[in-house]
């Protein structure tokens, strides 16, 4: 699979670890939000990029994880927390959000990437909270442990959305 070249861009990764499952006999992989994919902004049309043109936006509130060793397999449980907000003139009742979980080795070689989809349900309010639980299973070759791997989380963005985020990060 292709090399994750964007990993080198993230000197300031958002890292944190809270226990969800009992951890046993070994280190967990590092889990990080990729800064430039940690937020998605959907506009009502392709023409405007003003705050009044925002249909909805979403960002990761937190990513918590724990891991458990089971023989030569490592089970990593991720709890992904997302907040979504309707734009000022939006009349949407829900927002479809695509996000990814990617696994690489510590040499930045992509091993696997999976895209997930969830829905933020506004139900008469302007803010929604989404909680997703993902179980990542990693087969461990002889001599390898959880800290030989990295897990990255971000929204699955198209080119325009990624450019928008990069422009907002580097004005």
Distance between the termini: 33 Å
| Gross CATH architecture | Sandwich
DSSP helix fraction: under 10%
Q: What is the ordering of alpha helices and beta strands?
A: EEEEEEEEEH
Mind describing the biggest β-sheet?
5 strands, mixed
* Shape designation: elongated
* Percent of residues in β-strands: over 45%
Helix and strand composition category: mainly beta
Cα-based radius of gyration, to the nearest Å:
17 Å
- Say what the CATH topology is: Immunoglobulin-like
User: How many strand segments?
Assistant: 9
Report the average pLDDT across residues: 85
Low-confidence stretches: 1-23
Strands of the widest sheet, in order across it, are: 1-2-9-6-7
What would CATH call the class?
Mainly Beta
Number of domains: 1
Q: Treating each run of at least 4 consecutive H or I residues as one helix, how many helices?
A: 1
